[in-house]
Amino acid sequence: MGLTEDFLSYIGDIRGLSENTVTNYGIDIRHWSIWSGKLGLDERSFTRDDALSYTRELMGEFSERSVLRKLTALRTYYGYLIRRGAVESDPFDGISLRMKERRLPSVLTEDEVRELLSLPRSGYADERDHMLFLLIYNSGMRISEALSVDVTDFDFSHRRILIKGKGDKERFVFFSESTEREIKAYIPILEAFRREKKGDGEAFFLGGKGGRLPLSSAHIIFDKYRQRLGWQKEFTPHTLRHSFATHLMDRGADIRLVQELLGHESISTTQIYTHVSRQRLRNVYEMAHPHAKEK
To answer: Which residues are catalytic?
Structure first.
């Protein structure tokens, strides 16, 4: 058996934890294992910086209660590995969500989205980056979902993509008519680059060597554009996903429809966007109302 299976057997058979707890710990550890595996990491090479990055991603996708459970599972797992001598330290040790002080997610304004999507482009990398930004903002998909899209996944007759999200759950995401035109213009550029690099497969986003664009490179791309635009605010794949949801809510979209589009299991996860929209309304009020700043 592998380390994870040994651990689950230990907490079930030796420590006597409930079957439900063992199952949830298994789900949480496998979720982390898939995420770290995409970065070429394992239990021994995973660092505290990696743990902080992973925790930030969790906070963008799950409720605080779920994130706390996942971190507890990973701390318990690493405690077991330390006792076995498989690792020397726990990268999750001391990481806290500070639940009462959790800040609202970073969101782009509609003007900032237009600025991002209006940048001049030259060559395949620029076209790919533009399409990555456009597709996430247009559809609200997660970065992992976007990077897994193949050219053959597009249903242009309904302007939608069938994707497999968390827990292998399938859902449709949609794109606009103008985005459809951009996708169709991008595909010949993509295929020419694929031929040039002798790449194989049907990946919609390619890295510099012709293979599927890896997650680590995608995060580097987002940081490069944040610096290029001179933005002080956070700009990550989740920022675009947050912006997609918040702008829908700002324009009156029903929260349960936004939940479906985002692929959230629980409505409580989606409710963060109602708080964001309320804060934006508050900001508008304080800027515009003549009595708002009276003492």
So the answer is: 142, 166, 238, 241, 264, 273
